[in-house]
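note to self: the first set is below, dont mix up w the second
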Amino acid sequence: MQLYKNITLVFLLGLFFQCKDVKKSDAVKIENTTTETKSVSKKVPVNLITEQPVDIETPEGMVWVAGSKFSQGAVAQDKMVMGHESPNVEVAVDGFFIDVTEVTNAQFSKFVKETGYITVAERELDWEEMKKQLPAGTPKPHDSIMQPGSLTFKKAKSAVANLYDFSQWWNWTIGASWKHPNGPGSSIKGLDNNPVVHIAYEDAMAYCEWSGHRLPTEAEWELAAGGANPDNIFTWGDDTSVLAKNANSWEGEFPVTNTMADGFESRAPVKSYPPNENGIYDMAGNVWEWTSDWYNTNYYKEAAAQGTELHNPQGASSAFNDRDPYAKEKVMKGGSFLCNASYCASYRISARMATSLDSSLEHLGFRTVVTPSMLANKK
């Protein structure tokens, strides 16, 4: 579902700046039958890289994630699993380095200063390019709307009956960008340690090219998030009652009242919550994180049907969203400060959402990974 549907002309832009949070009641019937639907994978011998090579130093700000075999996707004890997370698939993922935190404003500022890069949210909009991904006959929005900007969150004034109508809490805000995360008048001054947001896929890729890193695959992201036990529901285990101590999410009635039981109403500085067992921070809540995988509603079903253990899976070969055949989207992981049990509960490890390549939102950022082979090639 796109933000622009069934509302004002402003949200025609929503195909490019969307949030795919899904409320809890949208969980598909198979969510509690994970063990029954789990595929029986044929084990294929692989030379799995588990330990950090002795001749490769850990890059600054990163941590080694040991290679492992695990079940990617839904876990049996998770009562909030959605259909596009099932059935889980057996994977073998080589070890890699990952950023300890989400990329921060300070880090992104350094990249921009050295390269002069201009993010998607700061650029003039090209209607001829945009309409290629819209249904035929979609009218061009008014010029007053066709200006650089991004989506920002707004609280609702009263209880919301329809949690599918995203327009009730999203604004198309002209002038919103990574430098102005809440729109004109806001800034990142004093927020060096906050995660950078309003980052489109192209922006994240440009940063990766500059840094010599890349975005994680969905499988790598889940391995890193799971710590010592990738079969956990959350990065800290299975206990929902300690959510507020471990993640920046929405506490209270969404999207009306946030009690800030976790200490924050909006984005939190990185490292505000305990790391997981891999020493990685904020892989649950705070801001969503890009991965390199195409979003395909049927990916897990199709992967499981192969009946083999997947070695370093790269995700679907092509994009497909059964809710929007026009969409070309990537998978984002981890949830954000807007996630609530009644709304999306996407602070779960297996949770995944779809976002178009042009999307930039005030709760979407990224972190990077690098492999030993990538570092060896730099020498």
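second set (the one i keep forgetting abt)
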Amino acid sequence: MHFLLTENIIEKAMNYKKPSSKSWASSFFRNQLKKLQSFTEDEPITAERRAQDFIGMLLQKIQHPDVRFCPLEFNRFQAAMALPPSSDCSGAVLYLHGGGYCCGGLEYAKGFGATLATEGGISVLCPAYRLAPEYPFPAALDDAMTAYRFLIEKYDPRKVVLVGESAGGGLIFSVCLAAKKLGLPLPAGLVAISPWTDLTASGKSYVENESMDPSISLRRLQFFASCYTDEPENPLASPLFGDLLNFPESLLFVGGDEIMRDDAVKLHQKLLASGCKSTLTVAPNMWHVYVLYGVKDRRQDMDAIQKFIQRVAQ
């Protein structure tokens, strides 16, 4: 892959300053993401990691340059605390990034972490958990649990919110499963954006939407899953198969055109069947983790996340 060409594609897709109509913006993002997918589909993980970190740096630079980051060192991974320009919230967010458990370093985590800090007016812990295949399951979960323990020692767990997208969206539910098993207090709420909750890919949307999702393919997801675990049906890897009883209130978002749509839909249905509060938004014509791109015609979804965090973390 010619990485400079990939950088140009990403920079165009992240060019929020260019005036445009809502319909033009959505179409433009879809086209740029499709181009990016074509370049990374058969490339080594290292190339995709570089592209993802570049996206994170652009998110920080373009959207939230006023957010400060306090670096943190854990034994097995790095992290940073995103500090908003102003805050009256006594709680905190643990943000777990996506990337198929194989991609996404600290710069990528800081990208949307900065958005959450600014929008929610709240401190956000952004861990760069260890990645597969170098560190397969349960390394990501172990690191996420370390970060969660760190937060609930410093903040009232009733004011801690877990947020994640894609693999991170599944991982926040795995954290809750692990915490419940260990007898640790659960967080105040969960926000999952296009959560990857079923590494066995059993949902119909993996087939129905593959041609419509411009950002990820089933083949690439299966590759990521094989790098991460030999037990994709394990509830700690695929929390859709776990016991969700007594889970905190959840706010879920998924694109109507993405192949992981059914991961969110089935999770929502199981949460409700388990007696938990859950709200699901299926955004028509939207792609995987569309919320991260700040698409103007879906601004209401970021507003809903902001209100949810401020309500449950106060």
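remember for set 2: The chain has one domain: 3-10+44-313.
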